[in-house]
# Entry
Amino acid sequence: MGEFWKRTVFGFLFAIVVIGGIFLGGMYTAIMLAAVVMLGSSEIANLCINQNDTAIKNIAQSMSIFLFVFLATFAESPDTIEAAIFIAPIFFNIPLLIALFSKKHDYIKLVGATWLSMIFVAFPCGIMMMFYNEYFIGTDKGWLLLIFSIILIWVNDIFAYLTGVSIGRHKLFERISPKKTIEGSIGGAVFTMLFAYLLNRFVLNVYFFDNYLSDMQVIFLALGIVVFGTLGDLTESMMKRHAGVKDSGNLIPGHGGILDRFDATFMAIPFIFIYLTLIN
# Structure
């Protein structure tokens, strides 16, 4: 199978799994995201430390899963989420205590890998579970808005690549990602905003919502997704460049690891959630 068809087939299967998991909701979504947290935190640990140091990897995975489960559990009620905001910081102190009493592991590597896994992977996945709470999003179809947002992230990724390959000349951030271009980023932004406008105007507000997002609101949503999605992509590229690797893993043939597919999503999701919460 050629590289193009490999990327196409496995990219399509990946999309089905993600969208299907979000659509089914409840335990199915939680299991899917827990798997993302487990695999993503493992990849971050590999990028930050020696891959043979399984102890630090286990700590990063465990703390990330604990934080995700905690956020997912408390996300079910607006009353409990307020308590969760005050309790959650305790999770970030635990790696410090482990490092304090550990004689075998480098303090910076242990805390850095664990915190990065919790902040970059577990926290956004926990926020995704909050899309199912009508109190925050203002609708019982938060799952649909989550799917809509993730599709916009993918649209930006695809058209930024296609535009960059076609007419890209000026580097966007050469020190971190030499292949990304300013022209590609602009092309991705234009197509993402156009796609968001059309899908919102002729699908979401016709069949699912009563003008939940106005034309201007959805365009600003798309623009924010482009900005934060690109920052997420660059952040993961920085991790890989630090580790001297091309991909974060090899889980998905033709695409790399979990971080390679979710990097933009991890950075964009907090913005999307805050934006939708504020306007509704």
Notes: The mean pLDDT is 89.
